[in-house]
Amino acid sequence: MDQLPKLAANYAPLSPVGFLPRANAVYGDRASLVYGRVRFTWSQTHERCRRLASTLLLTLGVRRNDVVSVLAPNVPALYEMHFAVPMAGAVLNTVNTRLDAAAVAAILRHAEAKLFFVDYDYVRLASDALQLIAAAGAPVPLVAVIDDLDRPTGVRLGELEYEALVAHGDPTVELPELQDEWDAVTLNYTSGTTSAPKGVVYSHRGAYLSTTSLLMSWEVGTEPVYLWTLPMFHCNGWTFTWGMAARGGVNVCIRENRPAEVYRAIARYGVTHMCCAPVVFNILLEGGDATARLAKPVNVLTGGAPPPAALLERVEKIGFNVTHAYGLTEATGPALACEWRAQWDNLPISERARLKARQGVSVLSLADADVVTDDAAMARVPRDGKTMGEIVLRGSSIMKGYLNNPEANEKAFRGGWFMTGDVGVVHPDGYIEIKDRSKDVIISGGENICSKEVEEALFRHPAVADAAVVAMPHAHWGETPCAFVVAKDKAAGVCEDDVMAFCRKRMARFMVPKKVVVWDVLPRNALGKVEKVKLREEARKLVPAVAVAPPAQKTKGKPTTKTVGGGRRDEHPVEQVMAMSRL
């Protein structure tokens, strides 16, 4: 049997890009994407992607393994680049729109991006990032602006514009064939807010298998209508960018994910599926009629933080059918899903919600997922729902590794497993449940915040002698940073407003502590380490001084000249709250 050869007839490298030509052949006349007044079919999307791929190759000189970065919300261009960029043999890098200029610059430099696409609404942010790159003497990528497809603004940053590049392309050009399914397809960053961000590299094979397994785990049938409430820049939209092509679905793209617009899109297009963080449920409940049911059920895949059972009860009563998932950027998105069992249907709604709040069982692209003891033996913990250990994963959907970071790779892969750093238990039925988050990471609205980064900024404040940051419960965002500080001069003290203003100048706004508590001394153990367990207990008793509400919708003016537009930097705009780097 070993002598049977691998032939073109019986072997083809796995790639999610292959879903697009199939969609063209099978679903060609079906709607592929809607955005305002714009409508495309799958045949049109296929042609547009081929056009862009040919332009990348023949006009812009993009070659195999070159990185093409993009800073954009959920617009058609971002969707199309998930196919067009790897069609040209390049690697797509989607950049989180919530980051500040320094973080964007750090990603572009680390990724060595050759080409940088920028949505018109983020031109100022991109311009600031590019100036930082140039000031550091690093190579500056070629820039192309993505103007609004429905209502063009004329905003530019340089001469290149996305639609012109698409129109310039030739859809008949022969594109390079994928030779090795282990080649990189995308590059995603787990933390673009640090000076040394970690770039997670996905393979074509891993992305393909993750896509198909999630479609099966979520039981997505043909012709779904998918509302893009989850940013495509997070884990490539949990692979549903490619998944909608695989099922011949309709991608409903909206720039402003305000509650009214979400409900309007659900009603207008007959939305069947969407993804979001649990915090979005609060926003949708507050922004709509919590007593009215949706005309038809909407299937929702949620992750980012364990959803409270009471919240699941409320959203399911109005017609959202929720499936809970858990994952990481390193696992190509969801790694566990709380698959529903028929025998649970007759349980009381409170019990059903409790079961749904668990993280669940491994998706099909994983060979295994378990919880192991935190020692050299790495033994599997008993399935008692009580014994805690570290959640570990292995399988084809796990990342290739961190780009140019051998130290992080050595730490992440151990004993044949990927170490998540998250603590959990295994219940008797095999379902995994998280009991604590990895070390001191704070998840606010689905975004990871490293407490150490915030602490480092606090230590630079001239009046702060000591500082520690932990998670504080928040009604809208799930968690927000809470800072405990010690003043250098006890008599002069520390001003809370001054500390917050100091932080706002040095980090993305979502990272800024919402509460600053001044103590005489921080609690420390015998080794001198801050006892954050005690601080978390104190933080749970606190609430933000001012309740945070979704910002008012931005009034859009039409520029009369081709000038630099303003980048959106709101602290927690709803469309960006739905972002997740750890599901």
UniProtKB/TrEMBL annotation:
Quote the CDD domains the UniProt record gives.
Answer: ttLC_FACS_AEE21_like
Q: What is its EC number?
A: 6.2.1.12
Q: Which GO terms describe its molecular function?
A: 4-coumarate-CoA ligase activity; trans-cinnamate-CoA ligase activity
What is its EC class? ligase
Record-annotated AMP-binding enzyme C-terminal domain positions: 453-529
Ranges where the record places region Disordered: 550-572
**Compositionally biased intervals (Low complexity):** 550-563
Q: Name one Pfam family in it.
A: AMP-binding
Against SUPFAM superfamilies, the record matches this protein to: Acetyl-CoA synthetase-like
The name on file for this protein is: 4-coumarate--CoA ligase
User: Does the record carry Protease as a key word?
Assistant: no
Task: Report the residue ranges that make up the AMP-dependent synthetase/ligase domain in this protein.
Answer: 22-403
Specify the superkingdom. Eukaryota
Q: Which keywords, in A-to-Z order, does the entry hold?
A: Ligase, Magnesium
> Is the keyword Magnesium assigned to this protein?
yes
Q: Which family does it belong to?
A: Belongs to the ATP-dependent AMP-binding enzyme family.
Question: What's the catalysed reaction?
Answer: (E)-4-coumarate + ATP + H(+) = (E)-4-coumaroyl-AMP + diphosphate; (E)-4-coumaroyl-AMP + CoA = (E)-4-coumaroyl-CoA + AMP + H(+); (E)-4-coumarate + ATP + CoA = (E)-4-coumaroyl-CoA + AMP + diphosphate
A GO biological process of this protein is: phenylpropanoid metabolic process
Name what cofactor the protein needs.
Mg(2+)
